[in-house]
Specification:
Blueprint lengths: L1 H9 L18 H18 L4 E4 L3 H9 L4 H17 L7 H24 L6 H9 L12 H10 L6 H9 L9 H19 L7 E7 L6 E7 L2 E7 L7 H11 L3 H14 L8 E3 L3 H17 L4 H14 L6 H11 L5 H10 L5 H12 L3 H14 L4 H16 L4 H9 L5 H9 L2
Parallel strand pairs: 2-4
Antiparallel strand pairs: 1-5, 3-4
Length: 433
Protein backbone atom coordinates (compact mmCIF):
# COMPACT_ATOMS: atom_id res chain seq x y z
CA UNK A 1 0.00 0.00 0.00
CA UNK A 2 2.81 2.44 0.84
CA UNK A 3 4.55 1.80 -2.46
CA UNK A 4 1.32 2.35 -4.36
CA UNK A 5 0.75 5.65 -2.58
CA UNK A 6 4.30 6.87 -3.30
CA UNK A 7 4.25 5.61 -6.86
CA UNK A 8 1.13 7.67 -7.48
CA UNK A 9 3.04 10.73 -6.41
CA UNK A 10 5.96 9.75 -8.58
CA UNK A 11 4.03 9.93 -11.84
CA UNK A 12 4.69 8.20 -15.12
CA UNK A 13 8.30 9.12 -15.77
CA UNK A 14 11.02 9.15 -13.13
CA UNK A 15 13.75 10.26 -15.46
CA UNK A 16 11.77 13.12 -16.99
CA UNK A 17 10.87 14.45 -13.55
CA UNK A 18 14.04 16.46 -12.94
CA UNK A 19 14.38 17.88 -16.44
CA UNK A 20 15.40 21.51 -16.59
CA UNK A 21 12.26 22.49 -18.50
CA UNK A 22 9.93 24.90 -16.68
CA UNK A 23 7.40 23.34 -14.35
CA UNK A 24 3.70 24.20 -14.41
CA UNK A 25 2.20 26.66 -12.00
CA UNK A 26 0.90 23.77 -9.93
CA UNK A 27 4.41 22.86 -8.72
CA UNK A 28 4.46 21.68 -5.11
CA UNK A 29 6.66 20.30 -2.37
CA UNK A 30 5.42 16.81 -3.21
CA UNK A 31 6.50 17.20 -6.84
CA UNK A 32 9.90 18.58 -5.91
CA UNK A 33 10.34 15.78 -3.38
CA UNK A 34 9.67 13.08 -5.94
CA UNK A 35 12.17 14.66 -8.34
CA UNK A 36 14.73 14.94 -5.53
CA UNK A 37 14.47 11.17 -5.05
CA UNK A 38 15.07 10.66 -8.78
CA UNK A 39 18.11 12.94 -8.66
CA UNK A 40 19.54 11.16 -5.61
CA UNK A 41 19.11 7.70 -7.09
CA UNK A 42 20.79 8.77 -10.31
CA UNK A 43 23.73 10.30 -8.44
CA UNK A 44 24.02 6.96 -6.71
CA UNK A 45 24.49 5.34 -10.11
CA UNK A 46 27.38 7.73 -10.79
CA UNK A 47 28.97 7.31 -7.35
CA UNK A 48 28.66 3.91 -5.68
CA UNK A 49 27.91 4.33 -1.98
CA UNK A 50 26.27 7.74 -2.34
CA UNK A 51 22.86 6.22 -1.57
CA UNK A 52 23.20 4.80 1.92
CA UNK A 53 19.63 3.53 2.15
CA UNK A 54 16.62 3.37 -0.14
CA UNK A 55 13.32 1.72 0.61
CA UNK A 56 10.99 3.19 -1.96
CA UNK A 57 9.52 1.23 -4.87
CA UNK A 58 12.03 -0.95 -6.70
CA UNK A 59 10.95 0.44 -10.05
CA UNK A 60 12.27 3.87 -9.12
CA UNK A 61 15.75 2.48 -8.53
CA UNK A 62 15.49 0.38 -11.69
CA UNK A 63 14.57 3.45 -13.74
CA UNK A 64 17.56 5.37 -12.36
CA UNK A 65 19.87 2.44 -13.09
CA UNK A 66 18.58 2.06 -16.62
CA UNK A 67 19.33 5.58 -17.79
CA UNK A 68 21.18 7.82 -15.29
CA UNK A 69 22.00 11.30 -16.50
CA UNK A 70 25.60 12.39 -16.92
CA UNK A 71 27.15 14.59 -14.24
CA UNK A 72 26.54 17.92 -16.05
CA UNK A 73 22.87 17.09 -16.54
CA UNK A 74 22.56 15.99 -12.91
CA UNK A 75 24.12 19.29 -11.83
CA UNK A 76 21.57 21.18 -13.89
CA UNK A 77 18.84 18.99 -12.41
CA UNK A 78 19.95 20.01 -8.92
CA UNK A 79 20.03 23.68 -9.93
CA UNK A 80 16.51 23.35 -11.37
CA UNK A 81 15.25 21.85 -8.09
CA UNK A 82 16.76 24.76 -6.17
CA UNK A 83 15.03 27.25 -8.47
CA UNK A 84 11.72 25.47 -8.06
CA UNK A 85 12.03 25.41 -4.28
CA UNK A 86 12.88 29.10 -4.23
CA UNK A 87 9.86 29.85 -6.42
CA UNK A 88 7.35 27.98 -4.27
CA UNK A 89 5.16 30.41 -2.32
CA UNK A 90 5.59 30.28 1.44
CA UNK A 91 2.53 32.31 2.38
CA UNK A 92 0.08 30.14 4.22
CA UNK A 93 2.51 27.27 4.80
CA UNK A 94 2.46 25.82 8.30
CA UNK A 95 5.65 25.34 10.30
CA UNK A 96 5.95 21.70 9.27
CA UNK A 97 5.75 22.56 5.56
CA UNK A 98 8.24 25.40 5.95
CA UNK A 99 10.66 22.99 7.61
CA UNK A 100 10.08 20.48 4.83
CA UNK A 101 10.96 23.13 2.25
CA UNK A 102 14.12 24.05 4.17
CA UNK A 103 15.07 20.37 4.50
CA UNK A 104 14.70 19.75 0.78
CA UNK A 105 16.65 22.92 -0.03
CA UNK A 106 19.53 21.89 2.24
CA UNK A 107 19.71 18.41 0.76
CA UNK A 108 19.52 19.60 -2.83
CA UNK A 109 22.32 22.07 -2.03
CA UNK A 110 24.43 19.23 -0.60
CA UNK A 111 23.75 17.14 -3.71
CA UNK A 112 24.87 20.05 -5.87
CA UNK A 113 28.11 20.32 -3.89
CA UNK A 114 28.76 16.59 -4.21
CA UNK A 115 28.19 16.77 -7.95
CA UNK A 116 30.71 19.59 -8.22
CA UNK A 117 33.23 17.46 -6.34
CA UNK A 118 32.54 14.49 -8.60
CA UNK A 119 33.13 16.84 -11.52
CA UNK A 120 36.58 17.70 -10.22
CA UNK A 121 36.05 20.83 -8.10
CA UNK A 122 38.50 21.05 -5.19
CA UNK A 123 37.38 22.48 -1.86
CA UNK A 124 39.13 22.96 1.43
CA UNK A 125 38.25 20.51 4.19
CA UNK A 126 36.08 23.07 6.01
CA UNK A 127 34.39 24.29 2.83
CA UNK A 128 33.64 20.73 1.77
CA UNK A 129 32.20 19.84 5.18
CA UNK A 130 30.00 22.92 5.25
CA UNK A 131 28.78 22.41 1.68
CA UNK A 132 27.77 18.79 2.27
CA UNK A 133 26.77 18.62 5.92
CA UNK A 134 25.73 22.18 6.76
CA UNK A 135 28.30 22.79 9.50
CA UNK A 136 31.72 24.41 9.33
CA UNK A 137 34.20 22.65 11.63
CA UNK A 138 36.83 24.44 13.68
CA UNK A 139 40.34 23.29 12.79
CA UNK A 140 42.46 23.74 15.86
CA UNK A 141 46.27 23.49 15.73
CA UNK A 142 47.49 20.08 16.84
CA UNK A 143 49.54 21.73 19.56
CA UNK A 144 46.30 22.68 21.32
CA UNK A 145 45.78 18.98 22.11
CA UNK A 146 49.20 18.59 23.75
CA UNK A 147 47.96 19.40 27.29
CA UNK A 148 45.54 16.48 27.07
CA UNK A 149 48.34 14.22 25.86
CA UNK A 150 50.31 15.28 28.92
CA UNK A 151 47.44 14.25 31.21
CA UNK A 152 47.21 10.85 29.53
CA UNK A 153 50.99 10.48 29.68
CA UNK A 154 50.76 10.81 33.46
CA UNK A 155 48.00 8.17 33.56
CA UNK A 156 49.94 5.61 31.46
CA UNK A 157 53.53 5.65 32.78
CA UNK A 158 56.40 3.79 31.16
CA UNK A 159 59.02 4.05 28.46
CA UNK A 160 58.59 4.73 24.77
CA UNK A 161 56.09 6.81 22.77
CA UNK A 162 52.76 7.47 24.47
CA UNK A 163 50.78 5.97 21.56
CA UNK A 164 52.66 2.69 21.95
CA UNK A 165 52.08 2.65 25.70
CA UNK A 166 48.37 3.32 25.26
CA UNK A 167 48.13 0.64 22.58
CA UNK A 168 49.81 -1.85 24.92
CA UNK A 169 47.44 -0.86 27.72
CA UNK A 170 44.41 -1.20 25.45
CA UNK A 171 45.53 -4.62 24.25
CA UNK A 172 44.50 -5.97 27.65
CA UNK A 173 40.88 -5.24 26.70
CA UNK A 174 40.60 -7.07 23.37
CA UNK A 175 37.58 -9.37 23.02
CA UNK A 176 38.77 -12.88 22.00
CA UNK A 177 37.42 -13.73 18.56
CA UNK A 178 35.63 -16.84 19.79
CA UNK A 179 33.73 -14.69 22.30
CA UNK A 180 32.99 -11.74 20.03
CA UNK A 181 29.49 -12.72 18.95
CA UNK A 182 28.02 -13.35 22.43
CA UNK A 183 29.60 -10.13 23.73
CA UNK A 184 28.22 -8.08 20.82
CA UNK A 185 24.76 -9.61 21.10
CA UNK A 186 24.65 -8.98 24.84
CA UNK A 187 25.64 -5.36 24.30
CA UNK A 188 23.08 -4.76 21.53
CA UNK A 189 20.34 -6.45 23.56
CA UNK A 190 21.04 -4.17 26.50
CA UNK A 191 21.11 -1.09 24.26
CA UNK A 192 17.77 -2.18 22.82
CA UNK A 193 16.20 -2.88 26.22
CA UNK A 194 17.22 0.54 27.55
CA UNK A 195 15.86 2.23 24.43
CA UNK A 196 12.56 0.34 24.47
CA UNK A 197 11.93 1.47 28.04
CA UNK A 198 12.12 5.13 27.01
CA UNK A 199 11.07 5.28 23.33
CA UNK A 200 8.18 3.90 21.32
CA UNK A 201 9.74 1.86 18.53
CA UNK A 202 7.96 0.73 15.36
CA UNK A 203 6.22 -2.62 15.60
CA UNK A 204 8.21 -5.62 14.38
CA UNK A 205 11.48 -3.69 14.12
CA UNK A 206 14.48 -5.99 14.04
CA UNK A 207 18.04 -6.42 12.79
CA UNK A 208 20.55 -9.01 11.63
CA UNK A 209 24.15 -9.00 12.93
CA UNK A 210 27.06 -9.96 10.66
CA UNK A 211 30.83 -9.99 11.06
CA UNK A 212 32.81 -8.89 8.00
CA UNK A 213 36.34 -8.03 6.87
CA UNK A 214 38.04 -5.77 4.35
CA UNK A 215 36.21 -2.53 5.22
CA UNK A 216 37.49 0.99 6.01
CA UNK A 217 35.01 1.30 8.91
CA UNK A 218 34.61 -0.59 12.19
CA UNK A 219 30.82 -0.93 12.05
CA UNK A 220 27.99 -0.11 9.66
CA UNK A 221 24.19 -0.11 9.68
CA UNK A 222 22.55 -0.92 6.37
CA UNK A 223 18.91 0.06 6.71
CA UNK A 224 16.69 -2.02 4.42
CA UNK A 225 13.24 -0.59 5.13
CA UNK A 226 10.22 -1.95 6.99
CA UNK A 227 12.06 -1.34 10.29
CA UNK A 228 14.82 -3.83 9.42
CA UNK A 229 18.60 -3.26 9.51
CA UNK A 230 21.69 -5.26 8.70
CA UNK A 231 24.36 -4.39 11.27
CA UNK A 232 27.90 -5.31 10.25
CA UNK A 233 30.98 -5.36 12.48
CA UNK A 234 34.41 -5.32 10.87
CA UNK A 235 36.87 -7.79 12.41
CA UNK A 236 39.98 -6.76 10.45
CA UNK A 237 41.51 -5.52 13.70
CA UNK A 238 41.00 -6.74 17.27
CA UNK A 239 37.89 -5.27 18.90
CA UNK A 240 38.14 -3.72 22.35
CA UNK A 241 35.53 -4.42 25.00
CA UNK A 242 34.30 -0.80 25.05
CA UNK A 243 33.41 -1.02 21.35
CA UNK A 244 30.61 -3.49 22.13
CA UNK A 245 28.42 -0.86 23.78
CA UNK A 246 29.63 1.79 21.33
CA UNK A 247 28.60 -0.25 18.30
CA UNK A 248 25.44 -1.59 19.92
CA UNK A 249 24.12 1.89 20.62
CA UNK A 250 25.58 3.68 17.59
CA UNK A 251 24.58 1.21 14.89
CA UNK A 252 21.49 -0.07 16.67
CA UNK A 253 19.65 1.41 19.64
CA UNK A 254 19.01 4.34 19.93
CA UNK A 255 21.32 5.02 16.98
CA UNK A 256 21.09 4.42 13.23
CA UNK A 257 18.55 1.60 13.28
CA UNK A 258 16.11 3.57 15.41
CA UNK A 259 16.71 6.82 13.49
CA UNK A 260 15.95 5.24 10.13
CA UNK A 261 12.98 3.27 11.46
CA UNK A 262 11.40 6.37 13.00
CA UNK A 263 11.97 8.42 9.84
CA UNK A 264 10.36 5.70 7.73
CA UNK A 265 7.39 5.37 10.07
CA UNK A 266 6.83 9.11 10.57
CA UNK A 267 7.37 10.45 7.08
CA UNK A 268 7.16 7.67 4.49
CA UNK A 269 4.40 5.52 5.96
CA UNK A 270 2.32 8.11 7.81
CA UNK A 271 2.77 11.23 5.64
CA UNK A 272 3.82 9.82 2.26
CA UNK A 273 6.77 12.24 2.09
CA UNK A 274 8.83 10.51 -0.55
CA UNK A 275 12.08 12.39 0.10
CA UNK A 276 12.64 10.38 3.27
CA UNK A 277 12.65 7.06 1.42
CA UNK A 278 16.21 7.75 0.28
CA UNK A 279 19.27 8.55 2.39
CA UNK A 280 22.15 10.28 0.57
CA UNK A 281 25.31 9.69 2.58
CA UNK A 282 26.93 13.06 1.87
CA UNK A 283 24.14 15.25 3.21
CA UNK A 284 22.99 17.10 6.35
CA UNK A 285 21.06 13.94 7.22
CA UNK A 286 24.35 12.26 8.10
CA UNK A 287 25.31 14.96 10.57
CA UNK A 288 22.13 14.32 12.53
CA UNK A 289 22.44 10.54 12.09
CA UNK A 290 26.04 10.22 13.29
CA UNK A 291 25.75 12.89 15.96
CA UNK A 292 22.60 11.37 17.49
CA UNK A 293 24.03 7.85 17.25
CA UNK A 294 27.12 8.88 19.22
CA UNK A 295 25.07 10.87 21.73
CA UNK A 296 22.84 7.82 22.08
CA UNK A 297 25.68 5.95 23.79
CA UNK A 298 25.75 8.43 26.67
CA UNK A 299 21.95 8.67 26.67
CA UNK A 300 21.52 4.92 27.10
CA UNK A 301 24.36 4.57 29.62
CA UNK A 302 24.59 7.78 31.67
CA UNK A 303 27.21 8.33 34.33
CA UNK A 304 28.71 5.15 35.69
CA UNK A 305 26.03 2.82 34.27
CA UNK A 306 28.09 1.79 31.27
CA UNK A 307 31.10 0.71 33.33
CA UNK A 308 28.80 -1.12 35.76
CA UNK A 309 27.14 -3.03 32.91
CA UNK A 310 30.45 -3.86 31.26
CA UNK A 311 31.92 -5.15 34.55
CA UNK A 312 28.82 -7.17 35.38
CA UNK A 313 28.02 -8.65 31.96
CA UNK A 314 30.51 -8.00 29.16
CA UNK A 315 33.85 -8.52 30.92
CA UNK A 316 32.87 -12.01 32.15
CA UNK A 317 31.48 -12.93 28.71
CA UNK A 318 34.78 -11.83 27.15
CA UNK A 319 36.89 -13.59 29.76
CA UNK A 320 38.42 -10.27 30.89
CA UNK A 321 39.11 -9.08 34.43
CA UNK A 322 36.33 -6.68 35.51
CA UNK A 323 38.56 -5.33 38.29
CA UNK A 324 40.48 -3.37 35.63
CA UNK A 325 37.42 -1.72 34.06
CA UNK A 326 37.77 1.55 35.95
CA UNK A 327 41.22 2.25 34.51
CA UNK A 328 39.94 1.62 31.02
CA UNK A 329 37.00 3.98 31.59
CA UNK A 330 39.26 6.73 32.86
CA UNK A 331 41.51 6.48 29.82
CA UNK A 332 38.57 6.57 27.41
CA UNK A 333 37.16 9.68 29.06
CA UNK A 334 40.45 11.51 28.51
CA UNK A 335 41.01 10.33 24.93
CA UNK A 336 37.52 11.52 23.94
CA UNK A 337 38.85 15.07 24.20
CA UNK A 338 41.27 14.29 21.36
CA UNK A 339 38.55 13.30 18.89
CA UNK A 340 38.64 16.47 16.78
CA UNK A 341 42.41 16.43 16.29
CA UNK A 342 41.90 14.21 13.25
CA UNK A 343 40.01 17.05 11.51
CA UNK A 344 43.25 19.04 11.44
CA UNK A 345 45.20 16.01 10.24
CA UNK A 346 42.65 15.25 7.53
CA UNK A 347 42.60 18.89 6.39
CA UNK A 348 46.37 18.91 5.82
CA UNK A 349 46.48 15.41 4.32
CA UNK A 350 43.59 15.83 1.87
CA UNK A 351 44.99 19.19 0.73
CA UNK A 352 48.38 17.59 0.09
CA UNK A 353 50.25 19.66 2.68
CA UNK A 354 51.41 16.49 4.45
CA UNK A 355 52.14 13.06 2.98
CA UNK A 356 50.65 9.73 4.02
CA UNK A 357 53.42 8.81 6.45
CA UNK A 358 53.16 12.15 8.22
CA UNK A 359 49.38 11.76 8.44
CA UNK A 360 49.83 8.29 9.94
CA UNK A 361 52.34 9.67 12.44
CA UNK A 362 49.95 12.43 13.49
CA UNK A 363 46.93 10.13 13.74
CA UNK A 364 48.96 7.73 15.83
CA UNK A 365 50.13 10.49 18.14
CA UNK A 366 46.85 12.35 18.58
CA UNK A 367 44.41 9.45 18.38
CA UNK A 368 46.74 7.38 20.58
CA UNK A 369 46.41 4.30 18.41
CA UNK A 370 48.74 1.68 16.97
CA UNK A 371 49.99 1.99 13.41
CA UNK A 372 47.54 -0.54 11.98
CA UNK A 373 44.61 1.37 13.44
CA UNK A 374 45.98 4.65 12.16
CA UNK A 375 46.16 3.07 8.70
CA UNK A 376 42.53 1.94 8.96
CA UNK A 377 41.49 5.42 10.03
CA UNK A 378 43.39 7.04 7.18
CA UNK A 379 41.67 4.62 4.80
CA UNK A 380 38.36 5.91 6.17
CA UNK A 381 39.51 9.51 5.58
CA UNK A 382 40.59 8.62 2.03
CA UNK A 383 37.14 7.17 1.38
CA UNK A 384 34.81 9.56 3.23
CA UNK A 385 36.91 12.74 3.58
CA UNK A 386 35.14 15.46 5.61
CA UNK A 387 32.42 13.01 6.66
CA UNK A 388 34.49 12.51 9.81
CA UNK A 389 33.13 15.75 11.33
CA UNK A 390 29.74 14.11 11.80
CA UNK A 391 30.93 11.95 14.69
CA UNK A 392 32.57 14.20 17.28
CA UNK A 393 31.18 17.60 16.26
CA UNK A 394 27.83 16.00 15.50
CA UNK A 395 27.66 14.38 18.93
CA UNK A 396 28.57 17.61 20.71
CA UNK A 397 25.98 19.68 18.84
CA UNK A 398 23.22 17.08 19.28
CA UNK A 399 24.03 16.81 22.98
CA UNK A 400 23.96 20.58 23.47
CA UNK A 401 20.65 20.86 21.64
CA UNK A 402 18.94 17.92 23.38
CA UNK A 403 20.07 18.88 26.85
CA UNK A 404 19.12 22.50 26.22
CA UNK A 405 15.49 21.54 25.54
CA UNK A 406 14.67 20.35 29.04
CA UNK A 407 15.22 17.48 31.47
CA UNK A 408 13.56 14.66 29.48
CA UNK A 409 16.47 13.86 27.18
CA UNK A 410 14.93 10.64 25.88
CA UNK A 411 11.72 12.34 24.74
CA UNK A 412 13.68 15.14 23.09
CA UNK A 413 15.96 12.67 21.31
CA UNK A 414 12.96 10.71 20.05
CA UNK A 415 11.50 13.96 18.71
CA UNK A 416 14.79 14.72 16.98
CA UNK A 417 15.05 11.27 15.40
CA UNK A 418 11.51 11.50 14.01
CA UNK A 419 11.98 14.99 12.52
CA UNK A 420 13.47 16.87 9.60
CA UNK A 421 15.70 18.86 11.91
CA UNK A 422 18.80 20.24 10.17
CA UNK A 423 22.28 20.92 11.59
CA UNK A 424 21.62 24.65 11.22
CA UNK A 425 18.61 24.26 13.53
CA UNK A 426 20.80 22.71 16.21
CA UNK A 427 23.36 25.47 15.80
CA UNK A 428 20.85 28.32 15.95
CA UNK A 429 19.15 26.88 19.02
CA UNK A 430 22.39 26.47 20.97
CA UNK A 431 23.53 30.01 20.06
CA UNK A 432 20.44 31.74 21.43
CA UNK A 433 21.07 33.85 24.56
Amino acid sequence: MRHMMIAALMGASLLAACAATPKPATDSLDMVARDYVALTLEIGEREPGYVDAYYGPAEWAEAAKANPRALPQLAEGAAALTRRLDALPTAGLDAESLQRRAYLSAHVSAASARLRMLGGEKMSFADEAEAQFGVRPELRPLSSYDPMLARIDALIPGEGPLADRVAAFRARYVIPKDRLEPVMRAAINECKARTERRMTLPAHETFTLEFVTGKPWSGYNWYKGNAFSLIQVNTDLPIYIDRAVDLGCHEGYPGHHVYNALLEQTFVKQKGWVEMSVYPLFSPMSFIAEGSANYGIDLAFPGHERTDFEKRVLYPLAGLDPATAEAQTQLLALTRALARAEYTVADAYLAGRIDRETALDQLQKYNLIARDRAAQRLSFIDTYRSYIINYGLGRDMVQAWVEGQGPDHWATTERLLASQTLPVDLDQATRRP
